[in-house]
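User: My advisor, Dr. K., asked me to get a structural model of this assembly before our group meeting. I'm new to this, so sorry if the format is off. These are the inputs:
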Amino acid sequence: MAVGLKPAESLLPVPGVRLAVLGAELRYRNRPDMVLIALEPDSSVAATFTRNRFAAAPVIVAREHLASTAPRALLINAGQANAGTGEPGIAVARASCKLVGDALGVEAEAVLPFSTGVIGVAPPLDRMAAAIPGLIAALAEDNWLAAGRAIMTTDTVLKGVSRQAVIDGKTITISGITKGAGMIRPNMATMLAYVGTDAALAPAVLESVLVAAVEQSFNCITIDGDTSTNDACVLMATGRAGNTRIEKASGSACQAFQDAVSAVMQELAQAIVRDGEGATKFVAIRVDAGATESDCREVAFTIAHSPLVKTALFASDPNWGRILAAVGRAPIGRLDIDRVAIDVNGVAIVRGGAVAPSYTEEQGKAAMAPEEIEIVVNLGAGVSTATVWTCDFSHEYVTINAEYRT
Amino acid sequence: MAVGLKPAESLLPVPGVRLAVLGAELRYRNRPDMVLIALEPDSSVAATFTRNRFAAAPVIVAREHLASTAPRALLINAGQANAGTGEPGIAVARASCKLVGDALGVEAEAVLPFSTGVIGVAPPLDRMAAAIPGLIAALAEDNWLAAGRAIMTTDTVLKGVSRQAVIDGKTITISGITKGAGMIRPNMATMLAYVGTDAALAPAVLESVLVAAVEQSFNCITIDGDTSTNDACVLMATGRAGNTRIEKASGSACQAFQDAVSAVMQELAQAIVRDGEGATKFVAIRVDAGATESDCREVAFTIAHSPLVKTALFASDPNWGRILAAVGRAPIGRLDIDRVAIDVNGVAIVRGGAVAPSYTEEQGKAAMAPEEIEIVVNLGAGVSTATVWTCDFSHEYVTINAEYRT
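Assistant: The format is fine. Below is the predicted structure of the whole assembly, which you can bring to the meeting.
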């Protein structure tokens, strides 16, 4: 069902980042469900995690470890989210890090754990333990695609992006993989994204680049408004590209790197939406001329979360009254309704807060027909703008999410 | 599809409130689509309206008129919402009030207009004008049921409630009708509620009773989180019951009246949810032990709006991880997740922020099976509580809302 999205077919190796996958039968059978990522010494890692208060055990442990030392390895399992599992879940996450650390000869705190899958269940530690030697033996730089496949739960398409940029006369490589948001299936919960680069940057710069890139990518997408307990986005830099280390979060070298990372993350984030639960449309909602960027975002997300707008998109119904009503209830400080304009795929639908004089139902139908829809709202209140990407709300969404857990 | 809801079969007349219905073929054929309600002189009226900034033309005009003089009549049409219609829509609303006022011998400002139906379209003024003499001729006190039927759009069940109370030794009567929320069908938009009583109260007391009753009834329900452009709830008091006029919003007489009005409005509000779009479950979400009532409400509404929780309810799937994840993302200041407990229909599901040791999947399935579900969340943070009523999210919801406008 993915909208305008083909599976990634090749991803560039990133010098200093080795990956391995293995089928440990944690929950799935006959497919890889564990991933190990190993980083060379002196790599830097920055990460952002879910803001859900019910953070999963691996999120809690990963945050602790990240604050304590420089990561050397990431361990990911698909099948169990290890969220809502209390102390026993924390113990499993810690123990898995210890096992990997011991095997690699690094401290447990240098290992970050990640889980995706059924909430309320921890992965079986014994099977994870049995898989670790095999994972370590299989570590290789050209395993990005395999890792992208192994972290999938009910994603229908393997999602990965590579990009290169020239910084300081050196070609740097960025590769990233991600898996779907929206708690894709009963109890399945997690957006995970891993992006590696061989660029050399100070850790503080890496952190700043990550925050800025996430703000313009993963934080701009929504399937159903449900924030998972396990969301994580990790940016890893090995420094092997040979560029002069970027020490400041400004200047042209940093900007070039920021642009490349932002582009990779934006493409990954959009891929999640295109492969959203039951998606039949890919929808960009741009809100222009707001008093603040925050106002623009609030309006865009209110439209993006409206079940009525989403079902109209599914039906290709030019039901602009629903968009208008969503704008009207967005939680922003001020809205001068007489200045609001709405366009859908270039057709002027609302002008001055009411239906545009030129608008015809035929125009509306034509505008709503394509798989890719752009809704542009102009608030007439300032110069800020924001864009949010989402998908429609189909019968398939209900089927996927109402289907009893197997 | 209405859940545990039978059509109202009789409603008590309220002395001093006369109603009439007529089929003016504004949009529907062969059914009444206009309602006129006339109030005896010296009646008091209080009303609350949508908070959507794109308030419909009749909402804008009704607010103005209400501020200017004591209402003597209400004119309601079903079929066109008269929202997003700009100045021409306002002109239609004003003109319809003038026509009714002239015919009744009162000023136009003593008439309040209300509309429900398709956004972006104003009702045809000529047909409304033609219907007004017939409406006036048909005014009678025993037309509550007919009025309840005439304001329906795609509601499946006629919703009305009557109740009596003894105040000051006198029997007072309260009758109310309502129509469904949730923008029930493509472009259909509006919750409307009209409650009349013959109790005698000062206007300020009536206003205070209305606000308190709405806060505990219509403001506690949600179908899909989409606030319509036309919502209105009107409380009318004719003072014909013979009780000593209640002058203060305190004391036992006021409390007895408040309780009766709140009970009527709560039953009407719950009827809307029971007749919600595609509803197969009626769900009460009670959040206990919050630091503030506002916290409890935020948590309850976050659960109530989660498409994942709603589809799990449709599937009768004890997918408590989704409830937990919704609690975790609720926008409240503080959440001590280790103290969170969740029960569904009396089954302990979450204790101390993790799955309850006693919980079994069989218990969960049994708890989720009935048509009526009570979810109780304990935040372990204080003594406040709040309850929100909602319904599930079914295939039928998507069908209803994706169906092309006829």
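One thing worth pointing out at the meeting: Residues 205 and 248 of chain A are 6 Å apart (CA to CA).

User: Perfect, thanks a lot.
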